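Hey team,

Filing this mostly as a record. A colleague (T.K.) asked me to run one chain through the structure pipeline before their review meeting, and I want the input and output archived in the tracker in case anyone asks later how it was produced. No errors, nothing strange. Just documentation.

Input sequence:
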Amino acid sequence: MECVRPAKDEHVSENSKRDDERDDVFPADAGLDSAARARDELTEDYHANLGEGFDKRCVGFLRVNYPELRERVLAGGTDEEILEWCFEKGRQLNDDDRLIWNHFISKFGWNDSATARLEELKQKHGVSDRKDIMTIADAIDLDEKRKS
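Output structure:
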């Protein structure tokens, strides 16, 4: 789950920015994709992965139970309220935790176990030749029209 989607700096590639230069580490207004998923706001392609992939990694990192998170999301609330619920039910994150998560999420798919999946996504979207789609987050941004 892109448990927390870092804000993109329009002038600097997320992948080229050093972790200690980032100003968007686990922002309070970050989108919990489970919130959107539980509200049926994402396309059907995503439904097969509910609670898996990024979702599974994020809830594991936060130490919350996915079915409980889903129920909390369905009960309503803002992303900020749901994230605070995660901190209350799971664990609070310190600056090092945030740094580690953001490093992971911003690089996933770049020369690692998810690279093959990234290539599948690029092929699905007809952008196999694009060198700027380097991570799973880039592919999701393309799919969700935040990147063209």
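Quick notes for T.K.: The radius of gyration is 15 Å. Residues 122 and 130 are 8 Å apart (CA to CA).
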